[in-house]
Write a structure and sequence with these properties.
The protein has seven helices and 14 strands. The chain is an alpha+beta fold and 319 residues long.
């Protein structure tokens, strides 16, 4: 009786299994008939960003990888986040991200150093403010554009996202800063006709104008996108100012199904006399100070200098 019941149970399981397989077969055949689209593993589409959320990145492996699968500390800043916070460059953006610092009038650390005040940190605040960063409290991060090293200052007018990869990134660049890498992704055509113009007005008559226009020349084949910026910043401290004027042209051509040709060109100029965020240092009192910590007053005695020159100059005697 027990054996008969087991046979009935096995027969019932077999019938149910055949029914499930038979029900799935038409669905599998239908999926095979549909077109399969393979996305490029080397590019990130702007449309993948949803608000402040970014799902994937090229950081870590140079291949398009979901952020949850990357074993690194990565922060992805989307275009919408930059718009909502009013961040247009690294000086304004890094104060919102985790474990990052930046010099400058709007930064969050000063790092004054008298020994390097000439041609050093204090001087670099005015000539290269976006390159004076500190990540993880270690050092300045390497700056890249589309994961290529750059010295061009980042600006949001032609940036679709900013990726902050904290930590060593030798897998990407061979030898990189132990602090990490800050990459800004340049805008690319999305093959949709669109146009956008924005104008901002700030304190002390500061103003910023930018526009972004794209024109599809050949549907799904050729598109050109142009973005331009004109910004003039003024400060309470006179005569400090900064004038930034740039234009970016990005084109994409898809001649064949598996072939994509991209080109990006940018031209611009930055003229600035940036404000001093550190109070002036007193270098005069030390000159009059006669204590061991002071600096001896420099004096010049022409006669003594000439006698010293004669004593130290070797004499060559001829035969």
């Amino acid at each position: 009786m027990k054996l008969k019941n087991n046979r009935l149970l096995y027969a019932l399981i077999a019938v149910l299994t055949l029914g499930i397989v038979g029900g799935l077969s038409p669905l599998t055949a239908q999926e095979d008939d549909e077109d399969v689209f393979t996305l490029s593993p080397f590019t990130i589409d702007e449309q993948e960003n949803v608000g402040y959320l970014a799902r994937s990145s090229l950081a870590g492996t140079r291949l398009k990888t979901p952020l949850r699968d990357i074993a690194a500390t990565i922060s992805v800043v989307t275009e919408e986040f930059m718009d909502d916070t009013g961040s247009t460059d690294l000086q304004e953006l890094l104060v919102y991200t985790a474990n990052t610092e930046v010099l400058g009038i709007g930064g969050n650390f000063a790092n004054p150093d008298e020994s390097r005040s000439v041609g050093g940190v204090l001087d670099a605040q005015f000539t290269r403010p976006t390159q004076n960063t500190r990540v993880r409290g270690l050092a300045a991060a390497d700056l890249t554009r589309n994961y290529f090293p750059t010295i061009v200052a980042m600006d949001s007018y032609n940036t679709s996202r900013v990726v902050i990869n904290r930590g060593a990134n030798s897998i990407l660049f061979g030898l990189g800063s132990p602090a990490g890498i800050i990459n800004n992704q340049i805008i690319a055509p999305v093959f949709e006709n669109h146009g956008e113009v924005s104008f901002q007005y700030g304190s002390y008559d500061s103003h910023r104008t930018e526009f972004d226009v794209e024109k599809v020349l050949i549907e799904d084949k050729l598109s050109i996108r142009v973005a331009a910026l004109n910004e003039e910043q003024f400060y309470q401290q006179k005569p400090a100012f900064e004038h930034d004027s740039r234009i970016t042209i990005a084109g994409e051509w898809r001649p064949y199904e598996n072939t994509i040709v991209r080109a990006t060109y940018e031209n611009g100029s930055i003229t600035a006399n940036r404000p001093r965020s550190i109070p002036p240092q007193d270098m005069v009192s030390r000159w009059f100070d006669v204590s061991p910590l002071g600096i001896a007053k420099p004096t010049h005695n022409g006669h003594e200098a000439f006698q010293l020159f004669l004593r130290e100059t070797p004499t060559v005697k001829g035969s």
